[in-house]
Amino acid sequence: MNTQLGEILDQLVQKGRTGLKNNIAVSWISYSKPNPEPCSGVGAGWDEQQLIYPASVVKLIYAIAIEAWLQKDMLPDSQELQQALKDMIAGSSNDATGLILDLLTGTTSGPSLFGERKQAWQKQRNLVNEWLHSLKWPELEGINCCQKTWNDGPYGRERDFYGPGNVNRNALSTAATARILEGVMTDALISPPACKRLRKLLSRSLDLMQRQADPENQIDGFLGEGLPQGTRIWSKAGWMSQVRHDAAWWYTPQGNPMLLVVFTQGRQRANDKKLLPALARELSQLQPV
Questions:
Q1: In Å, how far from its chain's centre is CA 244?
Q2: Considering 2, 60, 80, 257, which has the largest number of Cβ atoms within 10 A of its Cβ?
Q3: What does the CA dihedral 192, 197, 199, 203 come to, rounded to 10 degrees?
Q4: Global confidence as pTM
């Protein structure tokens, strides 16, 4: 699989994407059963431990954390919370994400804080990281999920929390993202009912008419665009001026499940709407196990 992945990346480089291997990370896993157990797949990776700004892919983490908090009665459920979850994952709303992170951590945005108030706020804002590290998965070492996502950018205490040179911005690897998405898809995180609810949020449609009606469909320009009609897919994409990412689990009409996480960096990659579909198209045609 490593050889196959390397050959496909080389082909994409030869089609004019000079330097691609220096600004892409990939985790690719194939499964031999329709309903696999956790960690039962075989896979390959390219730079998959590199920590990269995840853009909206981090919203997957926050959605799972909500389920964990609800299970522990650390948070009251509400219609607004459920709507915010849907808007955050299905529509990738940054406003909904801000509310979700405030609820998870007991923090709010606002003017700069100082002294003990600043320290207390920052400690609270790291609650999601503390929960992730408590899982003790080696793939999660070094990741950072404590910041909101923005349309324009952070201000006040939010900006202060990023630190000099944005040193404290969110960071994920494709390996960590793949392990987390696999957990959702195999009922291995929180509880089977929680995973079922999360899968409902992550489900995407490849129907062309539905995609045309929703310009923010998270299929066009991402992995789902490269998959054949009839494929069932669950995914969370991320995109901004400097990155284009996607994390997807799918079943093609003829195949067992496949998991693919791709992070790309740089303005050229962020604007390349054909790269992720091309990679998914090539890999989906292979059945390594």
A1: 11
A2: 60
A3: 160
A4: 0.96
